Amino acid sequence: MENYFKSWMAHPISKIFMATNFIFAVLFIVSVPSFVKEHITQDAVSIGGKKYDISDVKESSPIAYSKFQSEYKSLLKNTFGEFAQDKLFELVAKDKNLKPSEVLTQGLVVKEPSEEEIINVYMANKAQLGGKSLSETRDKIVGFLKNQQEQEFSRNRYKEIITKYPVDFLIKEPDIVRVTVAENNNPSIGPKDAKITIIEFSDFECPFCKRSQEVNRQLREKYKGQIRWVFRDFPLPFHQDAMYAHMAANCSIEEGKYWDVFNVLFENTGNLSKGNVDALVLNTGISKSKYQNCMKNQTKLKAEIEVDIQDGQKVGVSGTPAFFINGIFVSGALPFENFDEIIQKELKQ
User: Fold this and answer.
1) Do 121 and 244 fall into the same domain?
2) What distance, in Å, lies between the first and last C-alpha atoms of the chain?
3) What gap in Å lies between CA 26 and CA 349, rounded to an integer?
4) 270, 335: one domain
5) Residues 276-293: what's their mean pLDDT?
6) Cα dihedral sign for 64, 67, 73, 76?
7) Taking the C-alpha atoms of 211, 213, 219 and 221 in order, what is their torsion angle to the nearest 10 degrees?
8) What digits encode the pLDDT tens for the residues 133-184?
9) Could you tell me which residue ranges the Thioredoxin domain spans (predicted)?
């Protein structure tokens, strides 16, 4: 915050004006220290008598700082979003002489679902209904279909509202924190000179990692030729079958089958026993003898994977999946839009 001052010493000043400024000066002297103490020294941690603030976190642990920035922005957006929604409903309610609770439902007419719709829902979900008949589940299916109508009506109404009353989030973008992450000659997809390099630390036994693969494929498809995607092993210690699966995948690299094995292992995340992993790998067409010979040297394979784990830990990876988009840390199986926003900004630079 900048302060601007004017010189007033050269001008005649009345006694009243001088007294007023004197009082202001006294108040300023008294209040500034308390202001500083309250606002400048807050948000810190004292360790052994030495105080550290967020700038120290940024310097020593950029990933922790990046997480803080991202989560703070998300919290702000959610808070403003809830506030904006309430205000929008107030505006519309006043305009249409309604109660705010009626804004999204005014004019709603829920129709009785057709027999065809009921049967389609029943057949599509029959396996999850525990053997119950259509007559036993009819009321629940009808309720479900009516609820869908209500939700669709509310979504369309909300779109109309924000078209009339646009909502823009004027939230300052957080500082971009980049971390240097080595590729270390790991398997990759995409050109080496791509403008975007994404390094993924992941675990074949991790359900969140499996979930993220669909988003990853969508990104590679949309930005084909613009993204280089690097995969690094990060089997978590509490996933008992993960290490073996990662060793098996690495034994397929020389045969040019890595990404085939990669895909089939993630398709079977919940069933990666050693026997099943071996069968899955061999079903991709890899040479059985070469695979078995490679898997005999487990000490070497584990050492290579440990390098990935240690490199990840050095840059702040503690869970999976973890991504670095041109060094910008992204944690977790997030929606497509979260990655897309960062990539588009990087491509514009």
Assistant:
1) no
2) 29
3) 50
4) yes
5) 96
6) negative
7) -130
8) 999 999 999 999 999 999 999 999 999 999 999 999 998 877 788 989 999 9
9) 167-348
